[in-house]
Amino acid sequence: METSNDAYHRSDSKLENNLDIYLKALNSANSGIIITDNTQPDNPIIYCNKAFETITGYEHNEIIGHNCRFLQSQDRSQPERSILKACIEEGKECRVEIRNYRKNGTLFWNELYVSPVQNDKGEVTHFIGVQNDITDRKRAENDLREEKLSVEKKIQTRTQELIDNQAFLSSIIHTVRESLLVLDANYVVISANTHFLNTFKVSQEDTVGTLLFELGNHQWDIEALKELLIKILPTNNPVIDFEVEHDFPHIGKKVMLLNAYRVEFEGQYKDRILIAIEDITDKTEIDRRKDDFLSIASHELKTPLTTIKGLVQLLQRMPPESASEKYLTTLDKVGTYVDRLNNLITELLDTSKIRSGNIEVHNEPFAIDKTIRDTVESLSLATPNYNIVLSGATEAVILGDELQISQVINNLISNAIKYSPGAEKVDVHVSRVGDFVKVSVIDYGMGISPQDKKKIFERFFRARDIQKKFPGLGIGLYISHEIVANHKGTLWVESEIGKGSTFSFTLPIMKVDK
């Protein structure tokens, strides 16, 4: 006889099978599909299908946790964004055609359908977004509009543009202080500027009209370069900052930064490839020496500083009986500055390890909620004048280096306090987004300009306004970014000048076998 428990398990299994079928159906759809959680702050994406990843060029872990607006990049003045915002606030469905940008920066037109999902109480808990790439249709509509123009005027204008472009391109090639090549569709050199000829010790006669890979007795027959031109460039135009290292027979080893563009004209100039070659050999060597210096200097400073710290602590524990209040206060200040110097040296050592690939990651399962809570409590005790408000919970287990993740949280909250001198509050929010944990640190301080946002996670980068007002080396965010990346997560920032900043990062939740 079948028991109620058997019926329950059969029902549960049926639900799991149905869910699996639904997910497979969504992943097989040609349209991009996402689901956002309206119950969480900023309505983050908690699910996306394979088509959405294909259309946008982003990977799954780069999508989960973001608001859909990240696809508009800096193009945020579109009226369709206001329409979407109003519909989401009112819990209504809507359809818009909006400009989006893929991960590689290319524009695509998105036909977006947004529908709300309500619970039994009629509350909107989620939104489902279905998107279709209508770039070809938009292009066709634009072509039809152009065809209404006078054919004769179009030909004259286009001919003049070609003449101007050819003259302009030729002028650039021969005056810029960077090696430049123009190739035809078969990779035969059409033009080479003077800087290229001088740098690589070749003549104009031996270069123009020759297949690139046969130049200089095949010295440009470089596998990485072939991959760039034959495999990457046709599918990903343009190629930006592609690093190639090669040992040339006559001039030695060169480290080059290549930028390649496929220029699509009409007529006899159709399909041209422009290659800009920057010689970064000296810069790479300088960076290597700088990294070596930082590593050696940090290690050499660490030992005597540890001794100094121990002596200061000994004096603090065993002060002379006749020690004055000024003596004790001064000793405390020395201890504080020794700790600051010790933290700075530790960051420099971390940077050196990251650059050399020697940073150690001790992966162990840990409860992320407790790690965040402990870090917030420690910082609250250290900065009693700031109110650090922690909200949300995940009950998730992360497989990673708990100390490193704690370091990331510490860096983000410390920065939020440091760069919000007029504020008294920092918000920390933690939540589940799909198979990831999302942690956000929100401050109400200076904010970051769009120009600085692009470089904020680079090593030693500091915004100009910050350089004048706040001390530091600009390596904390670089270290945090690399730690999160090593844990298969992403770290990003949303900010406006004068309106504060929100630094968020995601970490994959550890899968537990049932």
From TrEMBL:
Localization per record: Membrane
Membrane topology: Multi-pass membrane protein
Parts of the chain that traverse the membrane: none
Keywords for this protein: ATP-binding, Kinase, Membrane, Nucleotide-binding, Phosphoprotein, Transferase, Transmembrane, Transmembrane helix, Two-component regulatory system
Keyword Membrane on entry: yes
Enzyme class: transferase
InterPro entries, per the entry: BphY/WalK/GraS-like (IPR050351), HATPase_C_sf (IPR036890), HATPase_dom (IPR003594), His_kinase_dom (IPR005467), HisK_dim/P_dom (IPR003661), HisK_dim/P_sf (IPR036097), PAC (IPR001610), PAS (IPR000014)
Predominant localisation class: membrane
Catalysed reactions, semicolon-separated: ATP + protein L-histidine = ADP + protein N-phospho-L-histidine
EC numbers, comma separated: 2.7.13.3
The keyword Hydrolase belongs to this UniProt entry's keyword annotation: no
Gene3D superfamilies (UniProt xref): 1.10.287.130, Histidine kinase-like ATPase, C-terminal domain, PAS domain
Domain of life per record: Bacteria
Every PAC domain range: 94-146
Domain PAS: 18-91
Residue ranges constituting the Histidine kinase domain according to the UniProt record: 296-511
PANTHER family: SENSOR HISTIDINE KINASE GLRK (PTHR42878:SF7), TWO-COMPONENT HISTIDINE KINASE (PTHR42878)
Cited NCBIfam families: sensory_box (TIGR00229)
Protein name in UniProt: histidine kinase
